Amino acid sequence: MRTDPRQLAENPRPTGRAVGAADDEVLLRRFAGGDAHAARVLAARHLPRLLSLGRRMLGDPAEAEDVAQEAMLRLWRQAPRWRAGDAQVSTWLYRVASNLCIDRLRRTDRTVAADPDAVPEVADDRPGPEAALTEKARLRVLDAALAALPDRQRQAVVLRHIEGLSNPEIAEIMEISVEAVESLTARGKRALARALAARKEELGYDG
Amino acid sequence: MMAEDRDDAEALDRLLAPYFDAAREDAAGPPPRSLLERIAEDAGRVLDEPRDAGAGPARPRGRLDRGVFAMAAGLAAAAILGLWIGFNPPSAVGNIETALLSVGASATGTGDTAGADEFSLLPDIDGLLAEG
């Protein structure tokens, strides 16, 4: 039986089955059993976080999409062999996506600007000297500062403070100890703070 | 010292919190439709793959594996050789009857077959019949 991808992408509801509330492993088992809609639900559930991770890690939305797509493809291929209790689907996806990001960074041998002054100037789009900058401008500054971090520090900081994962979860994703995660995030945050402190007023934060 | 470290960490968190909040809000949007379609296409393709393909790379179809090919070639060569021997027996085995019915065994182990016993490979039918 040929599966129509357009139907899979567009049909938001399963036929006769309610999978919206089901947990990830149930969805994955359903997918492995031929339920194409389960893939759509899983993708909609996990893509935003995978894209966010990819964008922060790679600094390029198009590459982030490629990484997210590849991570999901690996999940589809893994589905028939998935063993309940081995790992959470979300943790597994984060690990695959993180490794894909690191691979891309190493393959292209990207260098990042370690100098905090390399953070780009932000444009104040409001009149008046007291005008706060937009969220977008703050994001651009944060992204530039993140880009200046070493890969592993950036990965740990993004997973901890933007994705909101716990240290043990990050340790599992990065395949390092919890202590190593704490060390990476602490060093990353200090470096970020150095890059951002000078711009605190400029960016409209007074706290 | 511990208290200073904690204060430093809290000050860092206060400084960075607004940036992280902005990043989290930025990540909350829905994924692009085109990406969802690409992913759905991938999922459909994986479902359409043969079940035994498993999670590994697709096995090339319509080709003999190298091992099977080598075995088939070996069998073919052996068959041709067998046919050739059948039609053109080499002189060493030209006398098939001699080759099959008797084997010369060296009695001394020196290769000198002068004193070797000769024995038949076929059972002694007459003897067996005589024994009943």
How would you summarize the topology of this molecule?
The complex is a heterodimer of chains A (207) and B (132).
Chain A lengths: L4 H6 L13 H9 L3 H23 L2 H18 L10 H19 L27 H13 L3 H12 L4 H8 L3 H20 L10
Helix pairs in contact in A: 2-3, 3-4, 3-5, 4-5, 5-8, 6-9, 7-9, 8-9
Chain B lengths: L1 H26 L5 H16 L17 H22 L8 H6 E3 L13 E3 L4 H7 L1
Antiparallel strand pairs in B: 1-2
Largest interface between protein chains, with number of residues from each side: A-B, 52 and 38 residues
Strand order, largest beta sheet of chain B: 1-2
Large-scale geometry of chain A: elongated
Major beta-sheet overview of chain A: none
Q: What's the number of domains of chain A?
A: 2
Based on the coordinates given, report the CATH architecture of the largest domain in chain A. Answer: Orthogonal Bundle
| Cα-atom radius of gyration of chain A | 20 Å
CATH topology of the largest domain in chain A: Rna Polymerase Sigma Factor, Chain: A
CATH class of the largest domain in chain A: Mainly Alpha
Order of helices and strands of chain A: HHHHHHHHH
Number of helices of chain B: 5
The whole-angstrom Rg of chain B is 42 Å
**H and E string of chain B:** HHHHEEH
Query: What's the rounded overall pLDDT mean of chain B?
Result: 68
Share in helix of chain A: 55-70%
Please provide the count of β strands of chain B.
2
Alpha carbon gap, first and last residue of chain B: 109 Å
Keywords:
heterodimer; A: 207 residues; mainly alpha; Rna Polymerase Sigma Factor, Chain: A; Arc Repressor Mutant, subunit A; 2 domains; 9 helices; disordered N terminus; B: 132 residues; two-stranded antiparallel ribbon; 58% helix; 5% strand
Quick rundown:
The complex is a heterodimer of chains A (207) and B (132). Chain A is mainly alpha-helical and 207 residues long.
Structure description:
- The complex is a heterodimer of chains A (207) and B (132).
- Chain A is 62% helix and 0% strand.
- Chain A is mainly α and 207 residues long.
- In chain A, helix 3 (36-58) crosses helix 5 and helix 4 (61-78) crosses helix 5 (89-107).
- Chain A starts with a helix and ends in a 10-residue tail after the last helix.
- By secondary structure, chain B is mainly alpha-helical.
- Among the domains of chain B are: 65-91; 95-132, no CATH class.
- Chain B has five helices and two strands; from the N terminus they run H-H-H-H-E-E-H.
- Chain B has helices at 2-27, 33-48, 66-87, 96-101, 125-131; strands at residues 102-104, 118-120.
- A two-stranded antiparallel ribbon of chain B has the order 1-2.
- Classes of the chains: A mainly alpha (207), B mainly alpha (132).
- Chain A binds chain B through residues 1-6, 8-9, 31, 34, 36, 39-40, 43-44, 47-49, 51-52, 55-56, 65, 68-69, 72-73, 76-81, 135, 138-139, 141-142, 161-164, 186, 189-190, 192-193, 196-197, 200, 205, 207, and chain B through 9, 12-16, 18-20, 22-33, 35-48, 51, 54-55.
